[in-house]
């Protein structure tokens, strides 16, 4: 079997985070998590995950700020990490902003089941 | 006497005094010329003539002096006396003239006519009558005096006088009465005529004055209304000159009335007014609820409208610019939609958790689920989904109300959008065993993809929702010149006639719809209508209860 991909989940809501982690583990992914923006930045640099699931409304740094710093990082193994935004913000302005900043996709949590989210992750990691 | 009466009386006397200067002079010339031409020397010597005319000029001068005073300073008594003296004084002088002339029958007696004329200028009817009678009496006395020989004998040879000649006396008197009576009557009539005219004129003046007052009051009322209106108002004439501005407009636009009246919108100073002028020009002088944002520390949002002002003959007099301050409404709107956005975000989080949790169990990720458990969890999941839809609807409504609903227009194939929407609804359609027949012409136009898909989905979803199982729903798309026509026809429960008008109202649901499907939000058609209208389209429907409904929308084909 190929080495399992490492996914960083940035989510401040514990229950949501646990559900995602459970599903990801079920799907044989390596998982790391962060509960706020600062921690996310640290984990990204430290762990260099294969993909980041990023919430937008976070304590300390917002998801947009995390995305900006990630994309602005000089190291190619950091700034090339694909990011999927997973948020309950769903205004067109937010979506446009997220995609323009380099996110691979913008998923509204309430509109996707975990299986659908996994499908999107697989698509991005292909 | 009232002041106005005094003024009129003094005026009349003044005319008489002025006339007297003239006719005394004429009389002097007449007497002198008679004496020279007719050699009727009599006893009217130069000294007597000078005396008589001197008396006349004298008292006339006194009257003139008296009349130089302002009427309000004349006492009632003095004025009445002067009026009476006008007639009496002249009568005395004329009598003296006749006495010195030795006879009453010569031309001089015609001067008595002047007395009647004076009376007609100064007095009313009764005064004229009394003067005429008094003059007749005086003449009778004088004539009798001559008849009885009290007048000195006349020296003129060719004239015999009245002395002892009763027949001549009689004739002279009758002649005099008739002449003077006629003159008195005529001048009375003329005086009455003038007085009537004067009265009518006065009445008219009063009427005009009243009308003017009424108009003035009306004008003041209108002006007060305009001044105190809570909306700003400005009127510009056909040359774009500002001719009216009310307090509120002065205040909001921060201008001074005196500096803008009579100037055009281009000429005036003041940044706000310039902005208004610009907006006015850009829209060709016609504004309807156009928003204008001015900020002076704090932001003020104005809604500008114009109205054409026409006179009764429908001629354009200018335009009215109306400034309605909608800052407060806008703020409340914004607060409301901010609230909805935040609330929606906050509500979505727990709903996501429920959704994910249920799906995790349903997918069997946490161990096998038996059929009964699955059934309950599925129901729970459906309820949760409906909640998510409701929140999306609420968010859409909030965005519609903010006026920033339509986002990005792209040219897209309309049949593809229909297919996409139908595909999303497929599980739902199959569940009711409904046949969906789509007949769509290939048309591409500029649309906001997400919104139009939402509208199509909503209409098909409604059709499915309110149709009996195993029925057929027809979806059609046709091209009509530069427009496309979309329709969804069902064989469902229809919309009750009475409720058809309310259909697009937020949260409204048909009475039969509530019974059929308890879960609708009543927001769908409100959103659809807004989507279609913001694409410059039109939506309508035909419906018969228990027979079915057909929804249509028409969009311009663009791009």
Main attributes of the structure:
heterodimer; A: 126 residues; Rossmann fold; five-stranded parallel β-sheet; 5 strands; globular; B: 559 residues; Beta-Lactamase; five-stranded antiparallel β-sheet; five-stranded mixed β-sheet
Domain module tally of chain B: 4
User: How far do the termini of chain B sit from each other?
Assistant: 91 Å
Q: How would the global form of chain B be characterised? A: rod-shaped
Overall radius of gyration of chain B: 52 Å
Uncertain residue segments of chain B: none
CATH domain topology of chain A = Rossmann fold
Average of pLDDT of chain B: 86
Topology at a glance:
The complex is a heterodimer of chains A (126) and B (559).
Chain A: E1 6-10, H1 14-26, E2 30-34, H2 37-47, E3 51-54, H3 63-72, H4 76-79, E4 83-87, H5 92-100, E5 105-108, H6 114-125
Parallel strand pairs in A: 1-2, 1-3, 3-4, 4-5
Helix pairs in contact in A: 2-3
Chain B: H1 3-37, H2 46-67, H3 76-101, H4 111-122, H5 125-147, H6 166-228, E1 232-237, E2 242-245, H7 247-253, H8 257-260, H9 271-282, E3 290-296, E4 298-310, E5 316-325, H10 327-362, H11 371-402, E6 410-413, H12 414-431, E7 435-440, E8 444-447, H13 449-465, E9 472-480, E10 483-489, H14 511-516, H15 524-534, E11 538-544, E12 548-556
Parallel strand pairs in B: 7-9
Antiparallel strand pairs in B: 1-2, 1-5, 3-4, 4-5, 6-8, 9-10, 10-12, 11-12
Helix pairs in contact in B: 1-2, 1-3, 1-4, 2-3, 3-4, 3-5, 4-5, 4-6, 5-6, 10-11, 11-15, 12-13, 13-15
What does this structure look like?
- The complex is a heterodimer of chains A (126) and B (559).
- Chain A is an alpha/beta fold and 126 residues long.
- Chain A has helices spanning 14-26, 37-47, 63-72, 76-79, 92-100, 114-125; strands at residues 6-10, 30-34, 51-54, 83-87, 105-108.
- Chain A has one domain (6-125): 3-Layer(aba) Sandwich (Rossmann fold).
- Helix content of chain A is 47%, strand content 18%.
- With 559 residues, chain B is an alpha+beta fold.
- Chain B is built from 15 helices and twelve strands.
- In chain B, the strands form three sheets. In chain B, strands 2-1-5-4-3 form a five-stranded antiparallel β-sheet, sandwiched between helices.
- Chain B is rod-shaped.
- Chain B starts with a helix and ends with a strand.
- The mean pLDDT of chain B is 86.
- The A-B interface holds A 13, 15-16, 19-20, 22-23, 26, 57, 88-92, 108-111, 113-115 and B 341, 345, 348-349, 351-353, 355-357, 359-360, 363, 365, 388, 391, 395, 399, 407-408, 450.
